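The protein record filed here:
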Amino acid sequence: MEQMFTYVVPALGVLGLIVMAVKSAWVTKQDAGDANMQELAGHIARGAMAFLRAEWKVLFYFVVIAGIILGWSGTLVENSSWIIAISFVIGAVLSAFAGYLGMNIATKANVRTTEAAKTSLAKALKVSFTGGSVMGIGVAGLAVLGMGSLFILFYNMFVVSTGGNVNGDAMATALEVLAGFSLGAESIALFARVGGGIYTKAADVGADLVGKVEAGIPEDDVRNPATIADNVGDNVGDVAGMGADLFGSYVATILASMVLGREIVSVDNFGGIAPVLLPLVIAGLGLMFSIIGTLFVKINKETDSVQAALNKGNWISILLTVGASYFVIQYMLPDGDLVLSRGGSISFTKMGVFGAVVIGLIVGALMSIITEYYTSMGKRPVNSIIKQSSTGHATNIIGGLSVGMESTVLPILVLAGGIYGSFLAAGLYGVAIAAAGMMATTAMQLAIDAFGPIADNAGGIAEMSGLPKEVRERTDILDAVGNTTAAAGKGFAIASAALTALALFAAYVGLAGISSIDIYKADVLSGLFVGAMIPFIFSSLAIAAVGRAAMDMVNEVRRQFREIPGIMEYKAKPEYEKCVEISTQASIREMVAPGAIALISPIIVGFAFGPEVLGGLLAGITVSGVLMGIFQNNAGGAWDNAKKSFEKGVEIDGKMEYKGSEAHKASVTGDTVGDPFKDTSGPSMNILIKLTSIVALVIAPHISEVPHGSVADAEKVEVKKEITYEDGKKIEKVEKIVIKE
């Protein structure tokens, strides 16, 4: 029974994919509206696929070259294998497929949401959220199936077939090869997120500056040549990019917990692999409870809160995961003390592990709540930006920057408390399992996140189709909530990245054969400073890329307004495909440099200066990247909702201000500045943090300072057990477990 339990994980992944297919079929069956609506949706779908084909063509060469190098390097050290190349390719393919799944359903759900909005807000929410849940469930299902299946394969190949020790070199090799899967997933995620972010923001900025500000036409007006590219961008950036992003995050979190789980001596019914298997099981259960949570996301009346419905589904999935985790941990982990042989054989109990899972879920929930506060309409931070818009563009920018900087305080305190609390509960394994607990409900989190771009596209189609005012009002309600949930999702992702990076960092230290990172050493301190700089240069490259691409877009839109007579009078159609082509070419060209920094910098530092300096680099990237990610995500989200607040009217110093006012124009400028913050560089920070750590983990055996031995490079580990007799008398017994290869 216990041995068969291993196969439950991929089975849950398959079940998730079946549910995804059923939901996808339901969305496809919904009414897609009239011929004009379908034509516009067709433009968006074709543009999105054109981008993916162009991106995949470039990434194909990257995957082949990187796979060959990985396969060759796997033969150079004892604790790796050429099979890591296959693992890498599978991770890359599934990551790309995860993005495609989301984008494919989003381009179908958008026009169907528009049609549903003709009937009611409740129906529009059902269609858009079901479309989002297809992506969420599909991404999590692929991750659980991929990780679960490959772990079974590599465990049997490298451990069972050789009779190796589950705490020794054999399991280390299996997990090193499995790390290739995570490296492939995160590599594709980075390029998808950066490339998609550049695409969507180049189109968005171009459409806003020329259309809304210069020409004075509404957002998503059919006369704006960039409007189709803008809607395409919502799909390739906020859907396909986010899908690949969270797929990579999900996989990296599970991997970090598994690598540290190998270092735990556990006398259990699973042959000693319960701590390694546990993160996979929690992920599978989180997938199932996320599916259940999606059933509760619904409203009945036009006045019902969409945000409250989403929160209800989210909390149900979290609470069910907490309850199930308790019983799973009780079943899988042994009674008495577990020993993590790192830093003097730290011992903890299975209740400590459960406590760490709870802490992770609490941290994730708090991060979402804090982000929601800083980016929601009607709250103090957004209202402060609205008020400062009345005095001009500059004060709007100052207000947004201030909100973004302030918004780092509470999340960092929550993260610090979560790290310390989970460490007290179960050592470094507790930190890793806290991240796994946080990411367990990724399917639900991603469903909430993905419904926003679908609603945004639905509003665009409604505007371009000239549908009645109430249709756009309903999609705007969904879109406004979607902006907040998107910001909350990015806050959730950066929080998980911080915990995961610390766990990966701890795993790297063990594999690299170093016991600590001494910042008193000049070279290590230098590495720390260089690492702290990397998120800044990464952000600079990403934002500058958006600026250059947006300039091309602005010039093209101006040219069409100038050279194609009749556009403004609805007598001629703009050349939408020209704008789509500009965004596609710019994003593919510009995504290379930021991606290269993330992949190459750990390799150069590691091989040139050694594992300890690389450890300093990773620490700098993690701390700086987390702060940059929170700051940019929240500033951008607050600017966006400040702008949207003017659509219903806002009161500033006793006077109502609406769209078209000077204050609104200032808010458009702020939103334009915030766009690359929240959709390009900001969300890329969490991938940068994890990808550099995974690269370090993969090269650790190559730069290790000591031979890679057993868990603690020692023969014996002491396990203290306290035994209580019926008469209340207590004695302490010390057992010694001998670890041999």
Q: What stands out?
A: Residues 708-727, 729-741 have pLDDT under 50 and may be disordered. The first helix runs from residue 2 to 5. Residues 1-704 form one domain.
